[in-house]
Amino acid sequence: MNIFRDVHTIKTLLTEAERQALSLGDDAPGAEHLVLAALTLEDGSARELLGVDAARFREALVAMHAAALEAVGVPASEEGLHPAPPRPGVYRSEVSAQEVFQRAKVLAKQDRRGGLKGAHIVRAAAEREHGTVARVLDRLGIDREALTGESR
Fold first, then answer.
1. Which of 19, 62, 87, 94 could bridge 30 with an S-S bond, Cβ 3.0-4.6 Å?
2. SS3 letters for 34-84?
3. Alpha-carbon span 40 to 133, nearest angstrom
4. pLDDT band, residue 149 (cuts 50/70/90)
């Protein structure tokens, strides 16, 4: 494991997850934003594992949120998403992102093939039975259980 490569990967993941969250109108990144960030990594392992790119995952995420709002009688905004303003100070994330990130680190250590990869983030997120990532994967027709063993 190359510690310098991992530090660069972690910085890229967290920065991109925060950017994705804010662009989608969320105050802090969750597991779904980490998956989006993993799909943008140069290593390509997340895209290969999922079979979709960040744009397709994001499209499914936005559609899922719109459907959830409409299900409770709130029409989706015709103007689109309203980005959230950046929050100064210490990096903050949702518990789901923290749990996925911690699990991905464990998976990367078990893998022993060159450090943290996007596929570790995807696999860790896919292990979560409930939540936004599980619903987006379902919407995309991706078998969550099949992913949990494929990033090894």
1. 94
2. HHHHHCCCCCCHHHHHHCCCHHHHHHHHHHHHHHHHHHCCCCCCCCCCCCC
3. 16
4. low
Weakest mean pLDDT among 49-58, 70-79, 99-108: 70-79
- Distance from C-alpha of 124 to C-alpha of 69, rounded to nearest angstrom: 27
d(CA 83, CA 66): 15
Lookup result for tokens 């039975």: 129
94-114 as b/e, with b when 16 or more CB fall inside 10 Å?
bebbebbbebbbebbeebeee
Q: Are 86 and 22 in contact (CB under 8 A)?
A: yes
Pair of tokens at residue 112: 């022993």
C-alpha 13: how far from chain center: 9
